[in-house]
TrEMBL record:
Highest taxon, organism lineage: Bacteria
Keywords: Glycosidase, Hydrolase, Metal-binding, Zinc
Protein known as: Beta-galactosidase
Domain Glycoside hydrolase family 42 N-terminal: 10-375
Catalytic activity: Hydrolysis of terminal non-reducing beta-D-galactose residues in beta-D-galactosides
InterPro entries: Beta_galactosidase_C, Beta_galactosidase_Trimer, Class_I_gatase-like, GH, Glyco_hydro_42, Glyco_hydro_42_N
Originating organism: Bacillus atrophaeus (strain 1942)
Pfam families: Glyco_hydro_42, Glyco_hydro_42C, Glyco_hydro_42M
Ranges of residues in domain Beta-galactosidase C-terminal: 602-659
Domain Beta-galactosidase trimerisation residues, every copy: 388-593
Family designation: Belongs to the glycosyl hydrolase 42 family.
Enzyme Commission number: 3.2.1.23
Gene3D superfamilies for this protein: 3.40.50.880, Glycosidases (3.20.20.80)
Length: 663
C-alpha cells in the first residue's frame, strides 16, 4: 500500500548554474513536484579524473531539495562512463552484432561485463551509497538507466569468455549442448565450449538455439550487474532500490527485479496507444507484488530526439495517464524531464520548463496532474488494487524467441499488446503476470505468444484448470522447446499432451487466403498457426477457407473441473478483433468472472479494495467521454453525492471515484 503519491521529474542540477538551480527549486514547489531523480548521467562530474571521486555537490543538492519538501531518488551514473575510462581502450567497449566497436559518446557505450568497467562502477556506487545513503531526503535508488535500451547483446572478447562459462554451467559437457541444440544440422557440431561462437556476422541466419541462448545469457548478465550494484547500496542505505525498464529492452524484467525492491518503468506511449500504457501498469504491479510500482519517465507533452519527435498530448490526457497509473497500482508518476537540456542528443524533448526557464506547452497539464494527485491521494493510499479474476501471462523470454524467429518481422510487444487490448475492451479487470507468478485467485488464464512453456508453468496451469479454471493457450504458444528447437514427439510438446488435443500440422496462414469461424464470427486467420484434429476435443472454431479447410483452429477439452482451450491461429483485421473479443467474453462468462464492467471503449475502471469496501476509479482515456454501468448504488467520493445504480456518464478525460454501499 502506498504511503503517499509521488509526482516527480528527472533533474540534472549538474548542468545548471546556481541561479537556475534556485529558480528550478522554487518552481518545483509551486508546481507540486515532491520527488526528483538525479545523478544518472553525471559520472564525469562525480569523478572527473580517475580515482578522484567527489559527490559533495549532490549531497548539497539533496539537502536543499529536502528543505523545500522535495525528496530524491538517487541514481548510479553507470550508463555514461567518462572519457578516461573509454578513450583509446576499445577492449572495454560494447561491440554490436556486426562487430562494430562503439566509441565514446551517447550512452551505454562500454561493455557492462568488462572487469575494469565493473570495478569502476562498483567504486562509484560505493562512494555514492556511503556518502548519500543515509541522508533523510533519499527515498529510493535507481540503478543505471534503461538497461539495454540502445544496445542488445555485446559481442566483445570479455563477453565471449563469459558466454563459454555460461554454457559450461548450463550443459556441463559439450555433448549435451550438441544434443540439446541439434548441432548436426549444417555441420555445426562443437568439440569444446570454447568453439561455440557468438551470433555475430554470418553468411545467413544463425542456428536458432545459438541466437536465443545468447540473448538469455545477456539478460542474465545484465541482471547480475544490477544485483551487484544493489548489494553495494544495501550496505549503506535502507532506501528501496529500483531500475527504470520497459518491455522493449533486451532484458528479462522478471529476473531483473528479483533482487530489487520496487518495479519501475518508463513509458512514452502516445495517446493513440493508450492500451500499451495500461498494459505496463497491469504488468509492473506484479513484478513486486506487495509494493506499488513507480513510473520514472513519461513526457509531460511529447518525446523527441535529434532524429524524431512525437506530437504533444491533447490537453487532459496527461492527467488521465497519471490517475489511471495511481489507480492501477502506481506510487510515483515522474517526467522526463524537468528543464529542457540546452545541449546533447535530446535537446528537442518535451519538458516542464524550457531551457530558458519559461513554462512549456505541457506545463498546464502538469498542474492538472498535481490537482488530481492531491484530490485522489486519500482514496488511493487507503486502498489497494483488487486482484483480477483474469490473468494474461507475459514473458520476456518469449521476446527472445521472437527476436530469433520473427517470421515476417513479427514484433512480440505489438502482438501481446494487441491481445491485451481485446481483454481491455471487453471491460474485464485483468492482471498481466510474469511466468513464475502464482495463479491463486484467478478463474481465467490467457497464455498467448509464448513459444516455449516450461514444465513448471504447464504443471501450474494444468493444476489451475483441474481446480476449475479455464486456461486459454495460444496463439503461437508451446511450439518450441527450452533450447529453441522443434518438438519431436508432437507439435506442441507437453502442452499438447496435457491438453489432450492433437495437433495435425503447423504452417503459416495468410489473411488473404485463410479464414475461420467461431462464436458466429467469420474472420481472416494469419501468422504461424496450429491446426487441430477435430476429433480430439470439442471444436469451437473451424477453418472455412484455406489449405486446412474443415479442420479446427480453436478447440477445448475438459480438464478436471475446468478446461484447456487451444487457440491455434491469430484472427486478424476488424473481424478478427470481434472474434477475439467474442472468445474472451464467452469464456469470461463461463468462468464466472465478477470483476467485469459494462464500460465504453476508451474509458477504464480500476477496482480497489480497502477497509471501507470496494471503490471504482473510473477514467476516460480517449478524450471522447463515455459511460459505465454501476451495478449498484454508491457514493461519488469526490463530490460526496449519492449515485444510483445504472449508467454513469464520464466526461472527456474525467475521472470519478465511486464507493459502493455494500461493505
Amino acid at each position: 500500500m502506498a504511503k503517499k503519491l509521488y509526482h516527480g521529474a528527472c533533474y540534472y542540477p549538474e548542468l545548471w548554474d546556481e541561479e537556475t538551480i534556485q529558480q528550478d527549486i522554487t518552481i518545483m514547489r509551486e508546481t507540486g513536484i515532491n520527488v526528483v531523480r538525479i545523478g544518472e548521467f553525471a559520472w564525469s562530474v562525480m569523478e572527473p579524473e580517475e580515482g578522484n571521486i567527489n559527490v559533495n555537490f549532490f549531497k548539497e543538492i539533496i539537502g536543499r531539495l529536502y528543505e523545500n519538501g522535495i525528496e530524491t531518488i538517487m541514481c548510479t551514473p553507470t550508463p555514461t562512463p567518462p572519457i578516461w575510462l573509454s578513450h583509446d581502450r576499445p577492449e572495454r567497449m560494447y561491440v554490436n552484432e556486426s562487430g562494430a566497436i562503439m566509441g565514446h559518446g551517447s550512452r551505454q557505450h562500454a561493455c557492462t561485463n568488462h572487469p575494469y568497467f565493473r570495478k569502476k562502477a562498483a567504486l562509484i556506487t560505493t562512494s555514492l551509497a556511503k556518502e548519500l545513503g543515509r541522508l533523510p531526503g533519499v527515498i529510493g535508488w535507481q540503478l543505471d538507466n534503461e538497461f539495454k535500451c540502445h544496445v542488445g547483446e555485446c559481442m566483445c572478447e570479455t563477453c565471449l569468455g563469459l558466454w563459454h562459462e555460461w554454457l559450461k554451467n548450463r550443459y556441463g559437457m559439450i555433448d549435451r549442448l550438441n544434443e540439446a541444440w541439434g548441432t548436426d544440422v549444417w555441420s555445426e557440431t562443437y568439440q569444446s565450449f570454447e568453439q561455440v561462437p557468438q551470433p555475430g556476422p554470418a553468411p545467413f541466419l544463425h542456428h536458432a538455439s545459438l541466437r536465443t541462448m545468447y540473448q538469455l545469457f545477456s539478460m542474465e548478465k545484465i541482471a547480475a550487474f544490477a544485483d551487484e550494484q544493489a548489494r553495494i547500496i544495501r550496505i549503506y542505505s535502507d532506501a528501496p532500490i529500483s531500475h527504470n525498464s520497459t518491455v522493449m529492452f533486451s532484458v528479462d524484467n522478471e529476473r531483473l527485479f528479483q533482487s530489487l525492491d520496487v518495479a519501475s518503468f518508463d513509458t512514452y506511449a502516445t495517446q493513440e496507444n493508450a492500451s500499451a500504457f495500461l498494459f505496463n501498469c497491469d504488468l509492473w504491479r506484479h513484478f513486486k507484488k506487495d509494493r506499488p510500482f513507480w513510473i520514472l519517465e513519461t513526457s509531460p507533452s511529447y518525446a523527441a530526439s535529434l532524429e524524431s519527435y512525437a506530437l504533444p498530448h491533447a490537453d487532459g490526457y496527461l492527467k488521465a495517464e497519471a490517475v489511471s497509473s495511481y489507480a492501477l497500482g502506481g506510487e510515483a508518476f515522474c517526467y522526463w524531464l524537468w528543464r529542457q537540456q540546452r545541449s546533447g542528443s535530446e535537446i528537442p524533448h518535451g519538458s516542464v520548463l524550457s531551457a530558458w526557464g519559461e513554462k512549456t506547452i505541457g506545463y498546464k497539464n502538469v498542474l492538472d496532474v498535481e490537482r488530481a494527485r492531491k484530490e485522489i491521494e486519500p482514496f488511493i493510499i487507503s486502498t489497494v488494487p483488487a486482484q483480477a479474476e483474469a490473468a494474461m501471462t507475459y514473458s520476456d523470454r518469449a521476446k527472445a524467441f521472437f527476436r530469433t524467429e520473427p517470421h515476417r518481422e513479427l514484433n512480440h510487444r505489438s502482438l501481446v499488446t494487441s491481445f491485451y487490448e481485446r481483454i481491455l475492451k471487453a471491460g474485464i479487470h485483468r492482471d498481466v503476470i510474469p511466468e513464475h507468478h502464482p495463479l491463486d485467485g484467478y478463474k481465467l488464464l490467457f497464455t498467448p505468444y509464448v513459444p516455449y512453456l516450461s514444465s513448471d508453468y504447464i504443471k501450474k496451469a494444468s493444476a489451475f484448470a483441474e481446480a476449475g479454471g479455464i486456461w486459454i493457450a495460444g496463439p503461437m504458444t508451446g511450439g518450441r522447446t527450452k533450447e529453441h528447437t522443434i518438438h519431436t514427439d508432437c507439435a506442441l510438446g507437453e502442452l499438447e499432451k496435457t491438453a489432450g488435443i492433437k495437433t495435425l500440422f503447423t504452417f503459416p496462414m495468410d489473411e488473404d487466403t485463410d479464414s475461420g469461424r467461431a462464436f458466429g464470427v467469420c474472420a481472416p486467420l494469419g501468422l504461424w498457426s496450429a491446426v487441430f484434429d477435430a476429433n480430439s476435443g470439442e471444436t469451437v472454431g473451424t477453418i472455412e477457407k484455406g489449405p486446412a479447410s474443415g479442420k479446427a483452429f480453436l478447440t477445448e477439452q475438459k480438464h478436471g473441473a475446468g478446461k484447456i482451450v487451444l487457440l491455434g491461429s491469430t484472427p486478424s483485421g476488424k473481424d478478427g478483433e470481434a472474434m477475439l473479443e467474442a472468445l474472451i467474453v464467452h469464456y469470461a462468462k463461463e468462468a464466472g468472472l465478477t470483476f467485469r464492467t459494462n464500460v465504453t471503449p476508451g474509458t477504464i475502471v480500476a477496482p480497489r479494495i480497502g477497509d471501507s469496501g470496494l471503490i471504482w476509479v473510473i477514467v476516460n482515456m480517449d478524450g471522447k467521454g463515455g459511460s459505465v454501468t454501476l451495478p449498484e448504488a454508491g457514493t461519488d467520493m469526490l463530490s460526496a453525492l449519492a449515485v444510483e445504480a445504472g449508467s454513469l456518464s464520464i466526461g472527456e478525460y474525467e475521472y470519478r471515484i465511486i464507493q459502493f454501499d455494500r461493505p
